[in-house]
# Entry
Amino acid sequence: MIGARSQFQLALSDVTEGMRAVHVWTALGWQDILQRYRRSLLGPLWLTISTGIMVAIMGPLYGKLFSQDIGGYFGFLAIGFVVWQLIAQTINDCCSAFITAESYIKQIKLPLSVHILRVVWKNVIIFLHNMVVVIAVLAWLQPHLRANVLLFPLAVAAFALNAFFFGTVLGIVCARFRDIPLIIVNVVQASFFLTPVLWVPGMLGRHSWTVDLNPFYHFIEIIRAPLLGEPVNPRSWLIVIAITVFGGVWALSMLKRYRARVAYWV
Amino acid sequence: MTLVKARDLGVDFPIYGGKSRSLKSTFLRAATGGAIAEDAGHRMVVRALDKLSFDWAEGERIGLVGHNGSGKTTLLRAVAGIYEPSSGTIEAHGRIASMLSITLGMDAEASGYENIFLRGTILGLRRKETMRVVEDVCEFSELGDYIHMPMRTYSSGMAMRLMFAISTSVEADIVLMDEWLSVGDAAFTEKAQKRLMQLIDRAKLLVIASHNLELIRNICTRVVHLEHGRIVEPAAPS
# Structure
């Protein structure tokens, strides 16, 4: 029924109905992965292999370049790289989430959030495949883990929630302005070098406080630090929580204003 | 009981990049398509549906006729809730089965069997619900062992049979169709027609857009003639 409810209620129910349609976005997201690896012998295992190769090459190389102790640096880089891939790919996929789902949006009435959740789900699955590499590295390094490792699933969930919120905003904006996805690709690429993935914040010396201004850093840190057996600065969690609240409000207000327009734009 | 109710329903498509006024006047003289107009913010829009008001009740079979670009498909999509009105209101009550594209979501690399579930998911069926119809779908489509082969090995006719079978196994109150679905060879077509008629008979309301006036006359109880996004003559089928 359209017309009797306020735009805000419609936006809210788009989100709740989307979340409830778990079977739809899990099936579609999984299908996206299968489609890429159909008829290949190893299938999605290729994700694990490519990440393994990248980490195996970059670890020793950058360890040498930055003259780091190879053990500790290797783990730092492996986890950081895998998390960064998750962040970067999710952002780029969210930009095109509605554009690529055009045929769905125009043929069948589904909550918009389904298309974003599909993308987030797909990337979380890929991340879990890549975690095999991380686990292999950790098995080799055997860091002394702390109790905070129990927060790892929570940190991934916090990322997924933010990916959903900001992905909704990006998806809507990109559906309307087709230059934005291309701008975002470049911003993400530049952020890779500005975020402590290849380098450790300490290397910046007295400028190391600047990493705190980088939101990506905090999302990586809450996932990376526990796996390395390091304490997580509570500030990182506070910032992530603040960003989440902000993202939720922003996503809802974007949905409220533009939800009905997306079908016209794609 | 009224199932679909529209009051001054308007659907405007914004045209981004189209700004020339001379282009606009050229379009205005065109025989097909919606009227080109300006919205409140002086942006150019195609007025695909212009102040439509109607009540479609239970038991009706609505036939939408009109030129290409007269707004038939847009109206179907507005009923489905895909295009929310730019002005006015439209309400639809009941479960909607939209047969606008029966191949949507098909994955050529997946087997026919997997595609039944994929398509079922998109149509809003739970796995358990699809389980209940899967046997009927396999049997009806007459694909035999092909059902376990990737769909890329199917001929287009075979693929259509399967997608038709799964799309028509959904229960719905309102059935939306863009042109009558006709699939397969002569023998199968007859079987398919019967299945489609059964689906329509079970539904409370059918809305079909078609250029086939003969067909509209045969199955519809009401004809809605659209021109440039307006209803011109709500005539009864003769």
About this structure: Chain A touches chain B at residues 1-4, 23-24, 27-28, 31, 34-35, 38-39, 103-110, 260, 263-265 (CB under 8 Å). The radius of gyration of chain A is 20 Å. Chain A has a mean pLDDT of 93.
